[in-house]
TrEMBL record:
Organism domain of life: Eukaryota
UniProt keyword list: Metal-binding
Keyword presence, Metal-binding: yes
GO molecular function: metal ion binding; metalloendopeptidase activity
Domain spans labelled Peptidase M16 C-terminal: 37-67
Taxonomic lineage from the root: Eukaryota, Fungi, Dikarya, Ascomycota, Pezizomycotina
Organism: Botryotinia fuckeliana (strain T4)
Name by which UniProt lists this protein: Similar to pitrilysin
PANTHER family (UniProt xref): INSULIN-DEGRADING ENZYME-RELATED, NARDILYSIN
Pfam families: Peptidase_M16_C (PF05193)
GO cellular component, one term: cytosol
């Protein structure tokens, strides 16, 4: 997430989103005429699906052990 923020446009809403506080979830979008809920649902429908997800496993076990 931090990498995406650092490489995105300064004007993108992602750069105003820190930890989900009232200001970044309500006040800033409203001041810019953005319906945050609507945009979030659009994002969810477009990008949030299992075929787009990645899983990273970190452990002391060998790859063979982790695969079983």
């Amino acid at each position: 997430m931090q990498l995406r923020r650092s490489t995105s446009s300064d004007k993108h809403l992602m750069n105003n989103f820190a930890a989900g506080n009232y200001q970044c979830l309500r006040e800033i979008p409203v001041s810019r005429g953005v319906n945050f809920r609507k945009r979030f649902i659009e994002f969810y429908k477009a990008y949030y699906s299992a075929n787009r997800m990645k899983l990273v496993v970190l452990g002391r076990e060998s790859l063979q052990e982790l695969e079983t």
